[in-house]
Amino acid sequence: MTAAAFRNGWFHSGDLGIMTEDGYLAIVDRKKDMIKTGGENVASREVEEAIHQMPGVAEVAVFGVPHPRWVEAVVAVVVPNLGATLTEEAVITHTRSLWPGTDPQARRHRRRHAENPSGKILERQLRHEHNDLAADA
Hints:
With 137 residues, the protein is α+β, with helices and mostly antiparallel strands. The chain has one domain: ANL, C-terminal domain (GMP Synthetase, Chain A, domain 3), CATH 3.30.300.30. It has helices at residues 2-5, 44-52, 88-98, 123-130, and strands at 6-7, 10-11, 15-19, 25-30, 34-37, 40-43, 57-67, 71-80, 106-109. The longest helix has 11 residues, at 88-98.
């Protein structure tokens, strides 16, 4: 995989970015984390950032799962802060207010995400756990 990442004198990291108005490169997501739903590409990181701005959100992971009609469904798994009460409708309303057109088709709440030793959320495990969430849609 390392050899495949180095091609024609360039390093292909798999990161996706945009040029800002100031001329800086801003990384917006990883190519493998881009969610393809209903003919659109949705950057999971942008949806996570929108949900993370909501009061009461401790952790959030956004990823795609197979969907029979849209190719993938957007799934947001939210961990509320201790003592906070979050509802699906509140998360959807908040997300739409910051990022119009975004509506995770399925949501789940948990007490804590599984993490690797460095504290990174194990999204591969979350995808596996929720892989059939939209199968009956």
